[in-house]
Amino acid sequence: MKSEMENDILKVLVTEEELKGRITELGAELYERFHGKNPLFLGVLKGSFVFMSDLVRACQVKSDVEFIAVSSYENATTSSGRVKIVHDIQQDITGRNLIVVEDILDSGNTLAFLSEYFKTRGAASITIVTLLDKPSRRTKAVTADLAGFVVPDEFVVGYGLDYCQQYRNIPYIGVLKPEVYSR
Ligand code: PRP
After folding, report:
1. Label partner for 96 (CA 20 to 30 A): which of 23, 44, 126, 128?
2. Which domains does the chain have, with CATH numbers?
3. pLDDT, tens only, 17-28
């Protein structure tokens, strides 16, 4: 398929086929852990929207879906450290088993903040599922319960992940050419 974004991509890190295969495995694992428990899939917007839609279909448990939107990068390439809730959850999560769905776990700022927040809102359990894990950049003591792929410290885009709000619609995970973000 033609893509006007391809010129900005240095290399493909995770192909569409690899994404599909791994998400099938994650869905099966979540099914084992959560069938009969009516979990709430809680996607962290915006980055998780593509992963979330594939993950919920890969896991046929009786469940519902919710979103929260946060922002900490504010168009920069490194986290500002301040997490802002841009759009809050729209339902009571007291006593619920949460499956928190993220596109990437980087410094850990976002999930450290959100885990605390969901606890104060009364969640019974919090399970963190991230598509990508970049442990080399962690500054907060946060670990994912399930991670799709461990990635090196490179600027990744696609499959929901952005640079300056762009490239989210690329169907694979790619590394952005450095000249794009140093422009
Ligand atoms: C990205 C990503 C995670 C967070 C991870 O969100 O979606 O939520 O950063 O980084 P951290 O572990 O260093 O906190 P971003 O703030 O870029 O917003 P977005 O989801 O709208 O792209």
Report:
1. 23
2. 6-71+92-178 (3.40.50.2020)
3. 999 999 999 999
